[in-house]
Amino acid sequence: RKQKMKVGALCCLVVAVTAQKSYDGYKVLRTGTLDQDKADLLRDVQTDTHLDFWKEPAPGRSADIMTSSDEMESVMAWLSSNGITFHTMVEDVETLIQETKPAAKTAKSEGKRYAMDWADYHDLDTLNEFITALADANDFASIIPIGQSYEGREMNVLAITKAGPGAPNIWLEAGIHAREWIAPAVATFIVRELVEDYAEHPDYLDKINWYFIPSANPDGYAYSHEHDRLWRKTRSDHGSILGCKGVDPNRNWGFHFGESGVSHNKCQETYCGPEAFSEVEMQNIRDFVLTLDPVPVLGWCFHSYSQLWLWPYGYDYGAYPENYKEIQQLAIDASDALYAVHGTVFDPINSADLYPAAGASDDWYKSIGMRFVFTTELRDTGRYGFVLPKDQIIPSGEEMWAGFTTVVNKVLEDVQ
Question: Which long-range contacts (CB under 8 A, 24 or more apart) does 68-77 make?
Fold first, then answer.
């Protein structure tokens, strides 16, 4: 009898590990515009429950909450009893996931150096093959291995160093949150344009060195492709008695660590980890970025969703860097340029004005002396949320390229 129980338990475990998590019956509820009290109330709920907030509660904005069919009634009742209005934003999360599922992986076609394209979302191997192909095809580009992830995946940075020693450096980081698939898709779109369309903007490579990591959280990204489309965190084990895995890697950086907007509950989406830089992936990125000389003039973090152009600091209200006025103005100018392409509205705001959250990578990048630091929250505003249809990848890339060139041109003004 005991032997059978063990086998049964093991079978269940294997099934749990290999199966794709289903979000059948899950909905995303959007609240009405929140005042300070209601935003604070929802932030307490976020800390105390396992509800997945797709969009965090902030005063003057709405929050998006994913809810399973089991929890639906109690969540709706609680919202109503606290005077928080809401409506259904996503009727069935699983339907969206199925509609946006990547096509079966294709090998690169004859004469093509890589399988990567922007008509679909791609897995980690395809992202890495893409940057390797760019490095192989250009003598001014190379791959720098910066270490391994918790589960042993190689973390590779594409270095584009045509400008050579002494030129300004720019650092691009994508995919720190695993489920934000549009982030590596748009970042690779931009890097392709940068390298393969060199002739259209030679100064970008002749006068600036570039360093790009397509997936800052490779274990989480692989897990989101293979097991759970909405996985956000890393995949590390910090001894949760409930078996909860992972840390929010964008709350794990060592600048004002753990001071605001984090959870210390290991099962929460915003669990910051037991200490700053507990996650080996964040250690690898930190150690690499600290080798860059000069300190990058620009650090850029690609995220989704909400269509925001965020500037630091994010750890507290009113914590602005000395040169915040030029950063703020550049965020405004870049958002204007982005808007001109497809009419997509990005809101250029300070990160903490959205909601204070400490331990984010952009704050740390600013703290080590990067002049400009931005986090761009890509499409959309919540109709699809993290599960953005693949036909929006190219338009997202096109508009972001316009914002991007605005920023790079500003950097170039000071290179002459």
Answer: 68/25, 68/26, 69/25, 69/26, 69/27, 72/27, 75/29, 75/51, 76/29
